[in-house]
Input
Amino acid sequence: MVVSIFRVSGVKITVPGRPVPKGRPRLGVRGRKAFIYTPPATREYEKLVGWVAKSAGCRPVEGPVSVALSVYVKGRLDADNIAKSILDGLNGVAYEDDDQVVELLVRKHKVKRKEEERVEIEIREASA
Output
């Protein structure tokens, strides 16, 4: 895990391993009650993202936020679904809600080895 804090208004973190795209909501039934839930793999990845951000010293900001993601993967993954799981993982950690994200940049890079897979995240307070 690589962590560097820059300026007062931003943080840069690296989440190691293969990113997990946001899974489609699932419908479950318990008795006569139906409920919708997030798939376990997605939920665990979102927890990992939040934990890495907390360990980097992230604290929720109140204003608009800019997020830049550099995704390093072997094979194919949808950039938009990766961004969704990362932004949801940062809820309550880097910002109160991902609705505060006013600027989002996602760059996807191919790597040759599974060990090189990771996501580098830059979070900054955006200009109002």
Summary: Confidence is low (pLDDT under 50) at residues 1-8. Residues 40-55 form the longest helix (16 residues). The chain has one domain: 3-125.
